[in-house]
Every structure is written in structure tokens, then in C-alpha cells.
Input
Amino acid sequence: MVLLGARQVGKTTLIKRVFPEAVYLTVDNEVTRQNLNKYDISVYSQILGKSKLLIVDEAQRLDDPGRMAKIIHDQLPEIRLVVTGSSSFRLKNKTSESLAGRKIEYHLFPLTISEYLFQKNYIDSLDDTRSIYNFDFDSVIEHLMVYGLYPAILNSGQDRVYLENLIDSVIFKDLIDLSLIENQSAAINILKLLAFQVGQLVNYSDLANRSGVDIKTVRRYLKLFEESYIIFSLLPYRTNKRDEIGKSPKIYFFDNGVRNALIRDFRPIEDRADIGQLMENLVISELYKQNEYGGHGYLLNYWRTKQGSEIDLVFSRPGKLMGIEIKSGDRRVNKSFSARYPESTFKVINRQNLATRDWYLS
Output
């Protein structure tokens, strides 16, 4: 089993609770890293002792994690192996060929809204379906728009300090340690620019000019940011209509708090001009997690025509097409998508219906 996700989203806590009997090794420990890098079955057997379950945490820091996993899989078939990583670029590339057909891959993200409410004791179950709560749901959502859903903020009381430290000392750790980013200043500048442009079409030339690197480097850094679970991209939904945009992606952050930490802006909602971006990012990242965790199998896209008609999100899979419009205010709903694709369903998500389950995936 391979468990992937950003640092500090709870991978280690989860696997230790699920597999308390396992031998747990973290490759952040230098001695452990050296032993696992020997690729010696006798060393692995000595580490395991009588245990039949091994957890290797932060395995992307190994020289060849796929080789390590293949040796254990082939020569110790009775051993169950759980591998975690916070940089899927290194881990997936190094394990895909070695473990083809031999691994099950899972992803862990920052908390969902329901997980947050449950952990804070606002609800009694993750399946709570009430539309009326005995707490101020709007205030909670406003807090999540600003500070996000990293598990550590549940009880920290210093959300801003935690998130700024996360940006400064953790978020680039793997990319730098693995020598995947040679220009840290440019990389941070690109991320900051993306943070200001949440939900907008990506302009690679503009990012290159403003960060002082070439377009090829911008594209490579964006791919690394995605593989490190900082951002994710939506490509346009397009059939054979000539007036539909078919190439430029939009970028969103897996966590609102990380986005706001990058631009050093934690002002309350009522003092901000980017409330639309904050709500859009929160909702789309939530739906991304729902689709992944629920195994719904949707493709996620946005839709836009060259004339400027657009909707925020399109979910598609064989036999089902759904458009979603996200509204932080009272803007008019765009009906162009429904007119062009009459077989589709359409939902509007706004501040009024966020507290319901009507917008959850099924």
C-alpha cells in the first residue's frame, strides 16, 4: 500500500492508529535511510524481526524506494508493506515500474469540512445530514476560508503562526532536499503569483516574466507543486465545439490556509476583496476530496467559451454530466452551459446552501 499526501496532513498519525502492531520506520532518520538504502534482504529481515507488517514513512527520501519495496514484496511475500510519501513526483516515478500491478495507492489531503466539524464536536457523525445546526455555521466557514483545514489548526490557537511556519520551513522541504528546485526564490514567487490568481486561467508567459525564469521552468515547477500536494489544476471541459477553450488550466490550492499564508493575508472575511476566490477555492478543494475519497470517478474540469461564458466546475463520467456554479454573492447564474448541454444537471453553491448536503457528490 502506498499512502501519498502533503506533509502534516496526518499520514503518520493515521497509519500508526490503523496499524499499531507494525514496525514503523521514518526515512527522515539518517540511520534508517542508510539501512533501507542497502537493498539487502538480510538487513530488512533483521529490522522486521517477527513482525509481518512494515511501515516506511517519507519513503521519497530513499535513493530508490521502488527497489526497496520490490525486494520486500518478492523475497518476503508474507510481509505487508505500507509506504508513505509527501512528494509523489519522486515516489511515484521510483515505484511505478517496480511495483506495477503490486500496489494500491491512496491519497490523504487536509481535512474535509465534515471531518473538521466532527473533530471540533460540532456534529456527532461524519454523515450528519442536518441543514440547521446549533452553532454558527457561517462563522465556521469564514474561519475555514481564511485558515484552512490542516489538522494542526484544530487546537493550535495560533493558526497564522503555524501556517506561516509551514510555508517557510516545511512546504518546500522535500523539493529542496531532493534537489528538484534549483531556484527557491523563483519557486516561491511563482506560488505567490498563483495564490493571487486562484481560479484564473494560467498564463505561463506572465509567470515566467514576473518570476525571472523561462516558461519551461515555470511548467516544471507547477508540476512539482502539484506532485507535492500544494496545488491542483483543472483543465477545460471541451467537446467538439470550436468556441470552447481547450488548453489553459486553472490552478487551485489544496488548502485555503496555505494560500493565505503565501500572500501573508489573514484578515477576516468582511475586510477582504477576495472573498469570491476564497469561497471558490474552499468549495472546489472540498469537492476534489469528496470525489477522491468517495471513489465517484468523476473528471473535474471548468468550462469557458471564447466569448466569455463560463462555469466554475464540471463533473463528468460516462452517462453523467454536471455543472456547478459557486457564488459568494448574488451574481446572476450563467445558464449557457445548461443550454449547450441540456442532458446535464446544474447546481449552484452559495453561502445560503453550504450548510446543507445538497451539493455533496453522489
The radius of gyration is 22 Å.
